[in-house]
Amino acid sequence: MSGHSQFKNIMNRKGAQDKARARVFSKCAREITVAVKTGGADPNSNPRLRLAIQNARSENMPKDNIERAIAKGSQSADTSNYEEVRYEGYGPGHVAIIVEALTDNRARTAPNLRALFTKRGGSFGDTVLFNFEKIGYLEFPLAVATADAMFEEALNAGADDVQTTEAAHEITCKPEDLGAVRDALESKLGTPNVARIDWKPTVETPITDLETAQKLMSFVEDLNEDDDVQRVITNADIAEDILAQL
Question: What whole-number distance in Å separates Cα of residue 239 and Cα of residue 243?
């Protein structure tokens, strides 16, 4: 019985991984298609497409899938019209949540998200932006430069701040400066891992108990499973001992 149960658990986990991978590929393809529609099919002259392709590659998306997504965006016969939409609300622990979506049907996306918020005891549609600051955000791999070199390059490019963590160089700037900072750094360091308008919490909501943290993590996972959702941002500040238990 134990062997059978272990095999079943592995199969269930494998199925979940396959579904998650397919979902990630679908979201990458959608971003590539929208990038082509808005800026053309040439990555050399379309920074959004360059970044979308790099992100897809980092997720191990097959080359054929990437090429199909580019071709779809280039086809005049493709009538899909994706909109970038932002939704707001509160989740478990009264954590402020921003959901960014790419959708071709708001009448589908909004009710789906409302149902998820309601199911988890949250509130959908409440304004939460006052808890965040709008910023330009870029991320480069550690290998492209030392911390000191990155700091100097980023400031010369017009960035406001640079933080080098164990995972990456993180650069922030004014939203309106993102394009110029990205172009200046890209010319010297290559395409960044991330370059986007982001939301930085200015007011954080502390989470100090395991149950609330688990509910929040589960809720965020549910949101990310929606095909239209591209990103979920929260202002949660989960205590270190709770993170260790998670």
Answer: 6
Question: Whole-prediction pTM value?
Answer: 0.81
Q: Are residues 135 and 175 in the same domain?
A: yes
End-to-end CA distance of the chain: 29
pLDDT in tens, 54-104: 888 888 899 999 999 999 888 876 667 888 999 999 999 999 999 999 999
Which of 74, 100, 116 finishes a domain?
74
> How many domains is the chain built from?
3
Distance CA 198, CA 182 (A): 14
67 close to 81: Cβ distance less than 8 angstroms = no
The CATH number of residue 34's host domain is: 1.10.10.200
For residue 203, CA distances in Å to 77, 96, 154, 157 come to 46, 9, 26, 29
Coil/strand/helix, residue 178: helix
Indicate if 144 and 237 belong to the same structural domain: no
